[in-house]
Structure formats: C-alpha cells, structure tokens
Design goal:
Blueprint (H helix, E strand, L loop, with lengths): L1 H34 L3 H19 L10 H13 L4 H20 L26 H9 L6 H16 L3 H5 L6 E2 L4 E5 L5 E5 L2 H12 L1 H6 L18 H14 L10 H12 L4 H8 L4 H18 L8
Antiparallel strand pairs: 1-2, 2-3
Helix pairs in contact: 1-2, 2-4, 5-6, 6-8, 6-11, 11-13, 12-13
C-alpha cells in the first residue's frame, strides 16, 4: 500500500517537470531551426528558463502563467543577490524570446516581458596590447619563410593603419600607393578613406610583394594582396588562428580578439597625444563616440608614455 502511494505521489510530482522540460525542448527546437544557434547558446537559454521556473515554482506559479510583476520580482531578487547587469540582460532576453514563442503557440495572449526595460550595460573597454606586447607579436613569425613573412607584413600593416580585419584580408595591390605612401580603403557604407603608411609598414609591404608573395602563389594568380598557400583569399577565421598562434608564441596571456591590433593602434596613438578626430578618420568610425571608448584605455597609461613617438610610424 505504501509503495503504491509513493509511486502515485512521484507521478504527480514528475508530471509538471516533464511538461516543463517538454515545453522548453520545443522552444529550443524552434529557435534552433529559425536561427541555427550554437549548443552553448541553447544551453544558456535552457539554464535561464530552468532558473526562472524554479524561482516561480517556489511561489506556486508556473512559467507559462507568470505575469510581469512575477518576473520583476524574480529579476529584483537576482540583482539583490549580486547578479551583474550583463547577466540580467541576457536572462531577460531569454525570457522575452520564450514568451513570444509560447504566444505564437497559443499558450497565452500577452507577453509579460513587453514593458520590462533592459538594464543599462556600460560599453566594455576593448582589450588592448602594450607596446612591448605588440613588439613581441611582431617578432613571433619566422620571416625566413614566405608564409611567416606574409604574416609579419599583415601584423605590421594592421598595427600601422588600424584596418579592420575584414579590410585587411580583402586588400588588393591596387589599393596601395607607394608614391604617396597611402592605402585607399572602402569601408563600411562604401565610405572611402586614405590611410597614411609608415616607413616600417611600407618596407615590409614592398619586400613581401617583391618576393615571398610570388613564392606563395607560384604560378597562380589572385588580386588579393595576402593569399593563402592554396592561392585563395584568407578568411577572417584563418587570420584569427594566426594571431592566436603568434600571441601564444610571444607569451601574451590575454584574451585577444581579431581587432586587438586595431585597438592597440588607436590606444597607442591617443597615448601619444593624437587628436581624437584624426583617429576617428583613420579608423573609419562614423560616430565620434565609438572612437572615444579608446580614450578611457589611453588615459590609464598616458603619464608613463608622454612625449614619446609611435614606435612603428
């Protein structure tokens, strides 16, 4: 008799959980089909929704029936417990997507997240490199080999010009004017900008074009300045792997991004007292506020570096 009661009670307890799991599974299947999200992203959605469901269950509220006040109370509790704005914003984004899905499925008529404002998140400062780390990164490729020479030239050019990685890998020889010492770049929104080349980057470019580039290509032809061993245009992902490999070789223990040398270019110029609007033009930023982010990084080291010159100008 006791066993029967226990089994019956377990069934009653498990049914809501099984129902919740099935609903979340259907939601995740739907957004994966729509957007092809990564397993990590889907896992984060599941974790956010399970955390919300547990919090609501303590007040005998099912996730499908929750109202705006219930969600605000849950979010407030998380914030009081030390949750950061970025984490809270990500959770709220998960909840929004979930409630829009169950509305489409006819499980409720209103979206309880509709009038909940996202928490304000300050723009994070870009991770940058010190000038010593940039020098270490430049020294990492083996320039006796054609591919190593290509990689060094790409790194020199990135740091000397602040190009976006997408602009670098799409660069063609016709965009370089050695007589005037400039690069002609067509950036976002088809806006053209001319970027001065320093002596160092011009020397590396000239040496690369005259020898190692032809060794990489052999008999093949391409308009792209920095070809791969197969003679193709390099991908963004391939260049990112190159930077990671050389950063590791140089002993740089930082979580770099493909834009790290662009960040370093901007920060080091501002460290040297360059005008913010000049840096804005060089970077191709349409909005000065985007460039201003770098001034926060630059201020940290301004006193130490005052009066020196850009090392690769």
């Amino acid at each position: 008799m006791m066993d029967t009661m226990t089994t019956s009670q377990t069934d009653k307890t498990d049914k809501p959980q099984a129902s919740l799991d099935a609903l979340i599974d259907r939601f995740l299947d739907a957004i994966w089909t729509e957007r092809g999200l990564s397993p990590n992203t889907l896992g984060a959605y599941r974790a956010d929704l399970m955390t919300l469901a547990r919090g609501l269950a303590e007040k005998n509220i099912s996730i499908e029936k929750a109202e705006k006040a219930d969600l605000l109370e849950f979010i407030a509790g998380r914030v009081e417990g030390g949750a950061k704005p970025r984490s809270t914003a990500r959770q709220l984004s998960s909840f929004r997507r979930f409630y829009r899905y169950i509305m489409r499925e006819g499980l409720r008529d209103t979206d309880p997240t509709a009038d909940i404002a996202m928490p304000r998140i300050g723009r994070s400062l870009p991770k940058t490199l010190t000038e010593e780390e940039v020098d270490g990164l430049m020294q990492a490729p083996n320039t006796d080999e054609p591919l190593g020479h290509r990689d060094r030239t790409m790194l020199e050019l990135l740091y000397a010009t602040g190009l976006r990685v997408s602009e670098l890998i799409n660069l063609k020889q016709s965009q370089i004017n050695f007589n005037q010492g400039v690069l002609r770049i067509i950036g976002k929104g088809d806006v053209e900008r001319l970027i001065p080349l320093g002596d160092e980057s011009q020397r590396w470019l000239g040496d690369f074009i005259d020898g190692p580039r032809m060794e990489i290509l052999l008999e093949r032809q391409t308009d792209y300045l920095f070809p791969t061993r197969r003679g193709d245009r390099m991908t963004r992902q391939a260049f990112w792997h190159i930077i990671k490999r050389y950063a590791q070789k140089a002993g740089i223990d930082k979580d770099l991004s493909p834009h790290s040398l662009r960040h370093a270019f901007a920060t080091h110029l501002l460290n040297r007292g360059a005008d913010l609007r000049v840096v804005q033009l060089l970077l191709g930023h349409s909005d000065l506020s985007t460039t201003q982010i770098y001034t926060h990084v630059a201020r940290e080291r301004l006193k130490d570096l005052h009066g020196q010159h850009h090392p690769r100008g």
